[in-house]
Design a protein that fits this description.
Phosphoribosyl-aminoimidazole Synthetase, Chain A, domain 2; 5-stranded mixed β-sheet; alpha+beta; 60s Ribosomal Protein L30, Chain: A; 7-stranded mixed β-sheet
Length: 329
C-alpha cells in the first residue's frame, strides 16, 4: 500500500480491503471481524442488525434516484442482508457552504419518500456545514437498526460447499447510469440506476428457506467483488456461469464501448443469495421472475472465483485492482 490515500482505496477492490483491514485490526473483536454488511448484536430480549454507511455519490441527482434515496435504500439493504427487519435509521447531512436550500429540500423529500416505502423511520440526525470547497455539495451519513427474528437462521459471511448462488436480477445499471450522468457521455440508452429497497424480495427469500448461508448486496466493486469476499471468508471456491448472469443489452453495449467489465460495476438494488441446493428452485421462484441461478460453491480452488464464459472457456475473476469508477455511492 502506498503511503497516501487514492480514489482506488474507495472503489471496493483490493486496495480498499487492505485499508479496511489496516483499520479493523486496531479495533479487532468478534463482531467486527465477521465483516458483514451489518453487525449482528445480541441484546437482552432481542437480536439486532446494526449498519452504518456514508454516501458521497457524484452527481447527487442521477437517472433513477438521488443521494437521498440512495442513502435510505443502501441502509435498508445492508440490514436486510442479515435477515433482519429494518426499523430505525439516523440521518446526518454534511453540507458545503453555498448549497441552495431548494436542493436540500429536494433531497430531504426523497429521503422521506424512500423511508416511507421501505418502512423505516428516521429517528435521529445531525447537520454540519463546512466552508465552500471543503467538500462536493453534500454528503450523507446514516446508521440503521433492524430486528432479527428469533426463529430465523443465522445468516453470516461463510458459504457452504454445494450452496447454489442466486441473483435477483440484472446487474451494473447503477454504475453505468452514474457514469453516463457524471461524464455527460451523451448515450441515449434509457439506463437508470436500480436504486431501491429489497424488502419484498428478501422477505420472500427468507420465507422460502431456512437453509440460506449468506446474502450480500453487490454495491461497490460489483458482483465479482462480492463473490470474492465470500470465497475468501468461506475459504472455499466459487464457480459461476457467464451465460446465467443477467445483463441488459444496453448496459452490456455501453460496457463494451467504454471497456468496462459489468461484473465489477456497482449495483444498488440487487442481492445474491447462497442457499442449500435442495432449496434453490423454490428460493429462485420466491424471489421473482428476474431471479437466476448463476453458480455454486465448491471445495477446490479455495478463495478464488472462477467464471465459465459463454464460449466454454474459463477465467479467474480476481479482486478489483484499478479504479473503474469512484464515488458511485
Amino acid at each position: 500500500m502506498d503511503n497516501k490515500i487514492t480514489l482506488a482505496h474507495g472503489n471496493g477492490g483490493r486496495l480498499m480491503h487492505e485499508l479496511v483491514d489496516r483499520l479493523r485490526l486496531k479495533f479487532s473483536n468478534k463482531i467486527l471481524n465477521e465483516m458483514a454488511d451489518a453487525a449482528e448484536l445480541n441484546v437482552p430480549g432481542n437480536k439486532l442488525a446494526f449498519s452504518t454507511d456514508s454516501y458521497v455519490v457524484k452527481p447527487i441527482f442521477f437517472p433513477g434516484g438521488d443521494i437521498g434515496k440512495l442513502a435510505v435504500c443502501g441502509t435498508v439493504n445492508d440490514i436486510l442482508m442479515k435477515g433482519a427487519r429494518p426499523l430505525f435509521m439516523s440521518l446526518a447531512f454534511i453540507i458545503e457552504e453555498g448549497l441552495e436550500l431548494s436542493i436540500l429540500d429536494r433531497i430531504a423529500q426523497s429521503v422521506k419518500e424512500a423511508s416511507k416505502k421501505a418502512k423505516i423511520q428516521v429517528v435521529t440526525g445531525d447537520i454540519k456545514v463546512v466552508e465552500k470547497g471543503s467538500l462536493d455539495k453534500i454528503f450523507i451519513n446514516t446508521s440503521g437498526i433492524g430486528v432479527i427474528s428469533h426463529q430465523g437462521k443465522h445468516i453470516g459471511t461463510k458459504a457452504k460447499v454445494d450452496d447454489v448462488i442466486i441473483i435477483n436480477g440484472t446487474i451494473a445499471e447503477h454504475g453505468i447510469a452514474i457514469l453516463n450522468a457524471r461524464e455527460k457521455l451523451g448515450f441515449v440508452s434509457g439506463i437508470k440506476s436500480d436504486c431501491r429497497n429489497l424488502n419484498l424480495e428478501v422477505g420472500r427469500c427468507l420465507a422460502a428457506s431456512k437453509n440460506i448461508s449468506v446474502m450480500r448486496d453487490p454495491t461497490r466493486g460489483g458482483l465479482a467483488m462480492a463473490l470474492n469476499e465470500i470465497a475468501i471468508s468461506s475459504n472455499l471456491g466459487i464457480e459461476i456461469n457467464e451465460e446465467d448472469i443477467p445483463i441488459k443489452p444496453a448496459v452490456k453495449n455501453m460496457c463494451d464501448i467504454l471497456g468496462f467489465d459489468p461484473l465489477y460495476i456497482a449495483n444498488e438494488g440487487k442481492f445474491i443469495c447462497f442457499v442449500d441446493k435442495k432449496d434453490a428452485s423454490k428460493v429462485k421462484k420466491a424471489i421473482g421472475k428476474n431471479a437466476r441461478i448463476m453458480g455454486k460453491v465448491v471445495s477446490n480452488h479455495k478463495k478464488e472465483v472462477h467464471l465459465k464464459t459463454e464460449i466454454g472457456s474459463g477465467r479467474i475473476l480476481p479482486m478489483l485492482e484499478s479504479d473503474q469508477l469512484p464515488r458511485i455511492c
